[in-house]
Design a protein that fits this description.
- The protein has about 375 residues and is an alpha/beta fold.
- Among the domains are: about 10-65, no CATH class; about 180-365, ATPase, nucleotide binding domain (Nucleotidyltransferase, domain 5), CATH 3.30.420.
- Helices cover about 40% and strands about 15% of the residues.
- It contains 15 helices and twelve strands.
- The chain has helices spanning about 40-55, 90-95, 105-120, 140, 150-155, 160-175, 230-235, 240-250, 255-260, 265-275, 275-300, 310-315, 320-325, 335-340, 365-375, and strands at about 10-15, 20-25, 30-35, 70-75, 85, 125-130, 185-190, 195-200, 205, 305-310, 345-350, 355-360.
- A six-stranded mixed β-sheet has the order 9-8-7-10-12-11, with helices on both faces.
- α10 crosses α11.
- It is globular.
- The structure holds adenosine-5'-diphosphate (ADP).
- The site of adenosine-5'-diphosphate (ADP) has 13 residues, from α10 and α12.
Length: about 375
């Protein structure tokens, strides 16, 4: 952590199904693929550790060099506004949040349990996707629904991608050489999942995702904000049950649903340049929604000093950034076409006379998790 250098990264895929594989990328050699059965998360993590200490392609001598493990955990409900060292109480709290994130928290918990078993005595730290947004005021997180559902089930807005929004907001302040406490920043995390956050005084005061990551912007396959009455309407017209409607809203909507082509913005941008009208429409809808949120967040913060683009689309698509910023001069935001013609690296892409700054900052959730972990075990 002294140099904050990545010494290896990797990805274990297809855990529990056929064709499991670990991609191991050490910084001192070639990337390798290890094809080995991973019936559970425990075996997968065992293979990860074996790769890290391997005599040929490993990056550390032994497991003793692992001082702590940081875990990205999706949902901590209202329980944690900061990262924490994971003890039994924290594990119980995460289990209580399973209802809120049925797809994500169970594998997160399995990963933590597997690490605890494989590395007894090594501290585990939980870094939560929801934590950064716990600073939202009740007026930003309460839905206009019968209040009893909030009390009974915790139905409220939580927000996600918190680690990423926090990281890029802090980087923006560093790059602009300003105290984050004096800045009003809108952070746009635009990937397959997309969300946007209003960061004032270094705190999240509103964010576009809500009770689940389905709310807010249009995304790769998620619908984002829609009139909720559409659900009942589709149940009736298409003779669907509510789970099937949920599946459509999560997996078949977004830019995939509009374009009918792909959830991958690269495919859609290509089709649009080739004249496909629905592909163009999907991109227009996406940009329009991001623009609306930028305006809304300028309003809730009482101004705007900077906007930040990050994640797959935000970091790579100059045309999407340009379309989003078109017409935002009235907020003091002027994008510089030439400076915007860049990708994947930190840059200020607004014109010199733009009173509010536009930045491109690649997100680095792993670094944020590592930093929080280091700080907590010190
Ligand atoms: P997630 O972590 O939510 O899966 P990412 O942040 O990795 O998402 O972003 C993935 C998205 O970024 C994909 O939909 C992809 O189309 C888009 N993307 C990646 N590279 C480019 C590019 N060069 N141009 C346009 N879109 C891109």
């Amino acid at each position: 952590m002294e140099t904050q250098e990545v010494i290896a990264k990797g990805l274990a895929e297809r855990i529990g199904i056929s064709g499991s594989m670990l991609k191991h990328e050490p910084n001192n050699g070639d990337s390798i693929k290890i094809e080995q059965d991973m019936p559970s998360h425990k075996e997968a993590l065992k293979i990860v550790i074996d790769a890290l200490i391997h005599k040929d392609y490993g990056v550390i001598k032994s497991m003793d060099e692992i001082g702590a493990v940081g875990h990205r955990v999706v949902h901590a409900g209202e329980k944690f506004a900061y990262s924490v060292v994971i003890n039994d109480e924290v594990m119980d709290a995460l289990k209580e949040c399973i209802d809120l994130a049925p797809l994500h928290n169970p594998p997160n918990i399995l990963g933590i349990e597997a690490c605890k078993e494989l590395m007894p005595g090594v501290p585990m730290v939980g870094v939560f996707d929801t934590a950064f947004h716990q600073s939202m005021s009740p007026y930003a997180y309460i839905y206009a629904l019968p209040y009893e559902y909030y009390i009974k089930y915790g139905v409220r807005r939580y927000g996600f991608h918190g680690t990423s929004h926090k990281y890029v907001a802090e980087r923006a302040a560093d790059i602009l050489e300003k105290d984050i406490k004096e800045l009003k920043i809108v952070t746009c995390h635009l990937g397959n999942g997309a969300s946007i956050t209003a960061v004032k005084d270094g705190k999240s005061i509103d964010t576009s995702m809500g009770f689940t990551p389905l709310e807010g912007l249009a995304m790769g396959t998620r619908c984002g904000d829609i009139d909720p009455a559409i659900c009942g309407f589709l149940v009736e017209k298409e003779e669907l049950n509510i789970n099937e409607v949920g599946n459509i809203l999560n997996k078949k909507s977004g830019v995939l649903g509009i374009s009918g082509i792909s959830s991958d913005f690269r495919d859609i941008e290509k089709a649009a340049t080739e004249g496909n009208e629905r592909a163009s429409l999907a991109l227009e809808v996406f940009a329009h929604k991001v623009k609306k949120y930028i305006g809304a967040y300028a309003a809730v913060m009482g101004g705007i000093d900077a906007i930040v683009f990050t994640a797959g689309l935000g970091e790579n698509s100059s045309s999407m950034r340009e379309n989003i910023c078109k017409g935002l001069d009235f907020l003091g935001l002027k994008i510089d076409k030439e400076k915007n013609n860049t990708r994947g690296k930190e840059a200020i892409i607004s014109t010199d006379d733009s009173t509010a700054k536009i930045l491109l900052i690649p997100t680095n959730e792993e670094l944020m998790i590592a930093k929080d972990t280091e700080e907590l075990i010190k």
